[in-house]
Structures are given as structure tokens and as C-alpha cells.
Task: inverse folding
């Protein structure tokens, strides 16, 4: 990792804006891993990313489907939004075929800790935490890998 960056976001609009900024830097083969407890804004951030990629319709949470795919022309870069919260066994990852999405698209993975050591080393890891005592404020900490060094949108 090249380093860590901390960001603060209070509103849904700010979380969406962070997602949009990440979308502008996104390339095929990228993985964005989102850590955080329930309700911290992982899906909201992803919706901002998808909107910036051109999605005009609703972006449902993949909580029950586990993988929600978006293809061209719906978005300008194919993307799979993955929610591993309900994944019971790390071995179940093989059945999801997530590597296939990285050929010409990207992945956003919620609950990446469920992957264990299988998380890609080039993944951009964002940890989202609710700030104590500050209503609705979230702290985003990013572990920025070398693959993102020259295109990280938050300096």
C-alpha cells in the first residue's frame, strides 16, 4: 500500500460524491473493497459510483442477490456490486466467479473481510466508520495501493 488517506462525509450527497470521484478514476481490473458496519454508507457510495458510470435507474443493494452486475450500455464500464455479508463459507467465493468480472470490468465488494486472504492485493480498501458524537458523520480511511497512486482523486 502506498499510504492511507482519511476523508469525512456527513450526508448521503457527500457519500454519493465520493463514489462519483472514484468512478472517474476507475479502470478495468479495479477492485474497490468497502469495510464498515451496517448503515455506514457502503451501498450509498456505490450508488454514487454507478450514477457517475451512467446508470440512470435504481441500483438495488445486492444483499440478497450477493452479486449485482451492470453491463454496457447501462454503464460505461462493466461493474459488479458484491455484498458478501451473507456469505457463509469462504469456499463459496469460487462459485461467484468474481475474477471473471475483472477481465473487462471492475468490482465493488462490500464486507471484503469475508474473503479472508482471497482479497486481491491491488484492491483499494475503504473503511467507513460512524463518528462518535457527531450525528451522521462518517470517517472514511483509504488504504491506497500502488495501482491507484497516480489516479487517487483525494489529495
Result:
Amino acid at each position: 500500500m502506498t499510504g492511507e488517506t482519511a476523508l469525512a462525509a456527513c450526508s448521503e450527497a457527500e457519500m454519493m460524491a465520493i463514489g462519483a470521484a472514484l468512478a472517474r478514476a476507475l479502470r478495468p481490473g479495479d477492485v474497490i473493497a468497502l469495510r464498515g458496519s451496517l448503515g455506514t454508507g457502503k451501498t450509498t457510495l456505490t450508488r454514487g459510483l454507478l450514477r457517475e458510470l451512467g446508470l440512470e435507474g435504481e441500483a438495488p443493494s445486492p444483499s440478497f442477490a450477493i452479486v449485482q452486475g451492470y453491463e454496457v450500455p447501462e454503464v460505461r464500464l462493466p461493474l459488479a456490486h458484491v455484498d458478501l455479508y451473507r456469505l457463509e463459507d469462504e469456499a463459496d467465493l469460487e462459485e461467484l466467479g468474481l475474477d471473471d468480472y475483472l477481465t473487462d470490468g471492475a468490482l465493488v465488494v462490500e464486507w471484503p473481510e469475508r474473503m479472508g486472504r482471497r482479497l486481491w492485493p491491488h484492491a483499494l480498501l475503504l473503511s467507513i466508520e460512524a463518528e462518535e458524537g457527531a450525528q451522521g458523520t462518517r470517517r472514511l480511511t483509504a488504504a491506497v495501493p500502488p495501482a491507484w497512486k497516480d489516479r487517487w482523486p483525494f489529495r
About this structure: The two ends are 16 Å apart (CA to CA). The chain has one domain: 3-148.
